[in-house]
Design goal:
With 366 residues, the chain is α+β, with helices and mostly antiparallel strands. Helices cover 28% and strands 40% of the residues. The strands form six sheets. Strands 3-12-15-14-13-16 form a six-stranded antiparallel beta barrel. The chain has a four-stranded antiparallel β-sheet with strand order 2-17-22-21, with no helix packed on it. It has a four-stranded antiparallel β-sheet with strand order 4-11-9-6, with no helix packed on it. Helix 2 (100-132) runs antiparallel to helix 3. The longest helix has 35 residues, at 2-36.
Length: 366
């Protein structure tokens, strides 16, 4: 019984070894067949390009025109025409002071001007009468000189009265607090019945039609931000837009080593529903543009912790180890392993084996 069992085990072992050998031979044949069979792949070239590295910087939207609208006269608030959130146009009346006192002050100044004019007219006639007596024995030189001085004083009084009347009319006109530019009322600082002195705040107004971007940019990255340089930015809705550098403020923060940079969005009307201090993310050039050798990102494979690329040479795919730098758009900067003009596989490279024959098509036609 034991002998028979042992014989059967030997026979099964011989059969198992034969099957395993056949499987290995079949796999080797498949690999050899794959190596001989041409694979169709999409390719791209290693190129030299004028590029720069970008870094993300968080900025904020700021209104080019915003601030407190103050009262230019003094008096009691008689009417408030706006509330927080109201949109106004340049020239709209937002509030009004009581004009009773201001109106009577204007009437008083007008009366003073009329009196001064009458006095001036009297002194002019008096001087003219004395001038007509110059050839007469009744002429008094001293009296004539006094008349000249009195006329000068009357002219000065009339000018002062006219200026006072103008100031009263300005105060009366300034009783209406007018929007100096279009915008949205962000805050109301007073209410009906409040007495305001000249210069006190009435409302805070924000012009959201003209927005800029302000960002604290690391000082070592401002070299590539000359006025007019175009950059991209994203806002809350995820859309990507373009702005250009308006100014780099020549003052560096000693704590953060950053400088303020102002950007003007192109086609600013596209910033719908934008708000002051809203965050945006800018893509800032890390430095001046330079010439670099780049390879398409899709050509790069990660194998055992190394970056590999299939290079097509004489119709076969040759695998190379490459050293890559920073990303430039959809490409990587090549530090070593590839040369300008090398043809690399960017489509179908996951299925290739080293030395396999390939048929190539341009990347866009694969």
């Amino acid at each position: 019984m034991a002998v028979g069992k042992t014989a059967r085990m030997v026979v099964l072992g011989v059969l198992g070894f034969g099957l395993a050998s056949a499987w290995i031979a079949s796999a080797q044949a498949q690999d050899e067949e794959a190596g001989d069979q041409a694979a169709t792949v999409g390719v791209d070239n290693v190129i030299r390009e004028h590029a720069r590295q970008n870094v993300p910087v968080v900025g904020r939207l700021v209104a080019r025109r915003s601030g407190v609208v103050s009262v230019l006269s003094q008096g009691v608030v008689a009417d408030m025409r706006v509330r927080v959130g109201d949109r106004v146009q340049a020239g709209d009346m937002m509030a009004k002071l009581s004009t009773n006192r201001l109106g009577w002050a204007r009437e008083l100044r007008a009366a003073e001007l009329e009196t001064a004019k009458a006095e001036l007219s009297l002194r002019e006639r008096e001087l003219q009468r004395l001038a007509n007596l110059k050839q007469s024995a009744a002429f008094s030189a001293a009296r004539y000189e006094d008349a000249v001085q009195e006329l000068a004083k009357a002219e000065s009084d009339a000018a002062r009265a006219s200026a006072n009347l103008n100031l009263s009319e300005i105060d009366l006109a300034n009783a209406e607090i007018i929007a100096p530019y279009p915008g949205v009322v962000a805050e109301v600082h007073t209410e009906i019945g409040t007495y305001l002195n000249t210069g006190q705040p009435v409302v805070t107004l924000v012009d959201d039609s003209q927005m800029e971007i302000e960002a604290e940019v690391p000082a070592n990255h401002t070299q590539g931000l000359a006025p007019g340089t175009a950059v991209t930015f994203t806002i809350r809705d995820g859309g990507t837009r373009t702005a250009q550098v308006r100014a780099v403020v020549p003052s560096e923060n000693p704590l953060t080593r950053t400088r303020k940079v102002r950007f003007t969005p192109k086609n600013g009307a596209a910033l719908t529903n934008a708000a002051a201090n809203q965050s945006v993310t800018l893509s800032i050039p890390a430095g001046p543009a330079r010439d670099v050798v780049t390879v398409h990102k899709d050509a790069v494979l990660n194998k055992s912790g190394q970056r590999m690329v299939f290079v097509v040479e004489d119709g076969k795919a040759d695998m190379r180890t490459v050293d890559l730098g920073e990303a430039v758009g959809t490409r990587f900067v090549v530090m070593s392993g590839l040369s300008i003009g090398d043809t690399v596989v960017v489509r179908g490279n996951e299925r290739l084996i080293p030395g396999q024959t390939v048929e190539t098509k341009p990347n866009g036609q694969y």
